[in-house]
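Message: A physicist's question: would you kindly supply an amino acid chain plus fold tokens?
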Amino acid sequence: MRRLLRSLTVAVLLASALAAAPVVDSVSITVSDLDRAVDFYSKVLNFQKISEYEVAGAGYEHLEGVFGVRIRAARMQLGNEKIELMEYLAPKGRP
């Protein structure tokens, strides 16, 4: 009886820990040329582009730790998996 109770307790604790675990929506990858990267991921790896956007401003400067940051990004999807390709427009990085 003690073993059963202990096993149930462990199962409940494990289930609650898994339910509270953060879910990763996507992984971000920095690229030097967004158009070329989107072309590669869509034609060679069969990802589909689901959105493209550009971000800038104080909030992103604090988030990235880079003054004057401007980012162009595209979200790509393959099945249930998603990635985000990010190109830094300002300041321009090294290729």
Observations:
- The helical segments are 2-20, 34-43, 58-64.
